[in-house]
């Protein structure tokens, strides 16, 4: 008989970011009040699930999203650096024309190749590190379910990789809302299903910043 193991990729909740910057891996970005409510709502979505392992990105917003799950299931949160947000040249800046960083010519050289992408961590590297993090979670929860709290771009890149789709994409077309859940179901080590749930749709104001 085969083991069915489920790994859920939970995106963190809304972040307090009044300046609207691309905060990326910068420290100190916490959940907003709505984000904290999203984290609790996500934990409630998992209430009847068989979660036996919990992993998180080291970023504050991810750890705060993992906290209600840790309390509900009485599980420790294992930090896995492979779940971290993608690296990005524009970290700490606003992105766009007008007052954004695109009006400054010194940044233009980072935009020559959207397929890699040239402005940040390569998609292939993101997919590989996320895959290895999921394998770790799958082994830790063999026959049960694991949750990995991560970020929009890494989760979406892994989903594209798992579904054998191209990795480069338009950021506005990602199906990975705040506190959403992308679920990978395995029979033994074979991926058999990818599913998506958005229990917090409509909650929060949104930051207007893609990614994170």
Automatic annotation (TrEMBL):
Classification via InterPro entries: His_Pase_superF_clade-1, His_PPase_superfam, PGM_Phosphatase
SUPFAM superfamilies linked to this entry: Phosphoglycerate mutase-like (SSF53254)
MF annotations from Gene Ontology: phosphatase activity
GO cellular component terms, A-Z: cytoplasm
SMART domains, alphabetized: PGAM
Superkingdom, natural source: Bacteria
PANTHER family for the chain: BROAD-SPECIFICITY PHOSPHATASE YOR283W-RELATED, PHOSPHOGLYCERATE MUTASE
Protein name (record): Broad specificity phosphatase PhoE
Organism expressing this protein natively: Actinomadura namibiensis
